[in-house]
Design a protein that fits this description.
- The structure is a single chain.
- The protein has a single domain, classed as Alpha-Beta Barrel (TIM Barrel).
- Helices cover about 35% and strands about 20% of the residues.
- The protein is built from eleven helices and 17 strands.
- Strands 2-3-6-10-13-14-15-16 form an eight-stranded parallel beta barrel, surrounded by seven helices. Strands 7-12-11 form a three-stranded antiparallel beta sheet, with no helix packed on it.
- Helix 2 runs parallel beside helix 10.
- The longest helix is centred in the first third of the chain and has 14 residues.
- The radius of gyration is 18 Å and the shape is globular.
């Protein structure tokens, strides 16, 4: 029997200009809920969700939007695990000419504030961006103690951390958290390649080097930005990992036209089956991640 492979649908992401670049991007709570239900019907076992301001399409961390979005998703009755992003509110923008004073665009908040919407919603999974790194003109701040606190908050709430590793050093931080017992008996790691954030490139050498540092017993997945995600998905399945696909990672098709979540997920399912796997059902994903059975 072919191996069940978890397909995560990353339906909208947090890129600030994504809604302007692709009109198919789910923005409103109703659109996001519909996209999650569609992803479940297409074979995704996990939905990775950000929220956006319905007025301008830009990423948001508004607790009211999060609450409405999660409520709408659950009201669809879609059989899918929720993975909520906690990547917002961790950015520093510095004014070089003013002695590196904070600029108003900075969003950095304590970990308790960054994760408040995740803890309130109690999804199956919440993200952790593992490490401090450059994001264009900004700095994403995730000190080791920030990550420790985030892991503890998730564990107390019964939420599985998805530890997103954008570079080799992030995996070493993840290994330390695993060794300290902060990520549980079944850690869940995501290898993130070619994102343009100054991390690891989307090359086979980078994928294999990061794969070799996955902690023993961990569940892992990998993705790359844009069309590089196609070969990364194939390699991940072949290596025993899991995959994700959606408009967060790929806004345009091979012709340079705006693509859709449906097209990307359909392609991902074909890649999984072509590489010898099959899309895991949500109940199987729960078993793989060692999550409680759905009540």
């Amino acid at each position: 029997m072919s191996r069940p492979v978890i397909l995560t649908a990353c339906i909208n992401g947090g890129r600030p200009d994504a809604a302007a670049l692709n009109p198919n991007l789910p923005v409103t709570p109703a659109q996001i809920a519909a996209a999650v239900a569609e992803a479940a019907a297409l074979g995704a076992a996990v939905a990775h969700v950000h929220v956006r301001d319905p007025k301008d399409g830009r990423p948001s961390n508004d607790p009211g939007l999060w609450a409405e979005t999660v409520a709408r998703i659950r009201a669809t009755g879609a059989d899918i695990l929720l993975n909520l992003s906690a990547s917002m509110d961790g950015l520093l923008y510095l004014d070089d000419e003013a002695g590196f004073a904070l600029l108003p665009a900075s969003t950095l908040r304590p970990v308790s504030g960054r994760t408040a919407h995740v803890i309130a919603a109690r999804p199956e999974i919440g993200t952790m961006d593992c490490g401090t790194f450059a994001m264009g003109p900004a700095i994403h701040v995730a000190r080791i103690d920030d990550l420790r606190e985030m892991a503890r908050l998730y564990a107390r709430a019964g939420i599985r951390a998805e530890v997103e590793c954008f570079d080799f050093g992030h995996l070493e931080i993840a290994r330390r958290l695993v060794a300290e017992g902060l990520l549980g008996a079944r850690p869940f790691l995501q290898i993130c390649l070619g994102t343009g954030y100054g991390g690891a490139p989307a090359t086979r050498a980078a994928l294999l080097a990061m794969y070799e540092r996955i902690p023993e017993g961990a569940v892992w997945a990998a993705f790359a930005a844009a069309e590089e995600n196609l070969w990364v998905a194939r390699e991940a399945v072949a290596l025993g990992g899991h995959v994700r696909a959606g408009l967060e990672d790929t806004l345009f098709d091979s012709a340079g036209l705006p693509t859709t979540n449906a097209a990307l997920l359909t392609t991902a399912v074909a890649i999984i089956t072509g590489a010898g796997g099959r899309p895991a059902k949500p109940a199987e994903a729960r078993q793989i991640l060692d999550l409680p059975a759905n009540a």
